[in-house]
Design a protein that fits this description.
mainly alpha; 124 residues; homodimer; DNA-binding
Chain lengths: 124, 124
DNA sequence: TTGACATATTCCGTTATAGGAATATATTGA
DNA sequence: TCAATATATTCCTATAACGGAATATGTCAA
């Protein structure tokens, strides 16, 4: 079987880099499709299709003003992604802590011994 | 063109629900492939392939112990996803704030007028 | 060495995807 | 009504993805 359909899943929707760029753009302000096309230098149909995917998963909403459709992000749906990754927070905090502690220890050794800080000792 | 290759991108790697389940499992503790197979009721080759993807993007690391390969998460790579979604935090905070304020306002009106809280008035 | 076990890899078939080109729809103004 | 503008949709094609089955690799124990 191929990949689970992109259309009904926020994770899949934001897996596509262009769609993330679109969301980035829209995070600053509501924009009509044409502006997105120009700013990201993408083909208009391509942008419309990406917006369609984002709309279907609820990450974006459109408002018509004359001939233009202004899109804005409805980023509430990203909270799920944020929360999921958050459950792994301790891992990178842990990693950063290691680095920090290692640096501090090295600095301390250097201070007391008069040597330069040692480069990253191998292993954990 | 089809989708950007899954192999070199954390966002794509975690777009697949099974891979997220695997990461969830591994977040608790290091596990050999066989255990993942049993717990998630997936075919062994399927699990190996998913682990391969996760390994290639650096979300997982393996350690051999006898015949078994113990995998553990290397979740540092998820920080990028977490940080990206974090840039949209204000949107859902904003939304939740709206809901909260609306509920509070409704409760207040109800309290002073003796009426039931009004259901969500339309619009922003 | 052989056999059993644990895991990875390969091959195959099906299917959703993304881009491009062409076209359809909607809105405005004349 | 018609033309112009803005956007969406459709059709087409190439490709990567996933699952399943079969097989390969690696490790241990006898």
């Amino acid at each position: 079987m191929p990949r689970a359909t992109t259309t009904s899943d926020v994770f899949n929707a934001v897996a596509e880099p262009r769609r993330r760029e679109i969301l980035d753009l829209l995070s600053a302000s509501e924009l009509p499709v044409g502006v997105i096309v120009v700013r990201l230098r993408l083909a208009q149909p391509s942008v419309s299709k990406h917006l369609g995917v984002l709309r279907r998963v609820g990450l974006v909403r459109a408002r018509r003003h004359g001939r233009q459709l202004f899109y804005r992000t409805e980023a509430l749906g990203l909270e799920a992604v944020h929360e999921w990754t958050k459950t792994f927070e301790r891992f990178w905090n842990h990693q950063l802590l290691q680095v920090k502690l290692r640096a501090e220890a090295a600095a301390k050794v250097a201070a007391t011994s008069g040597l330069n800080p040692t480069p990253n000792p191998q292993g954990e």
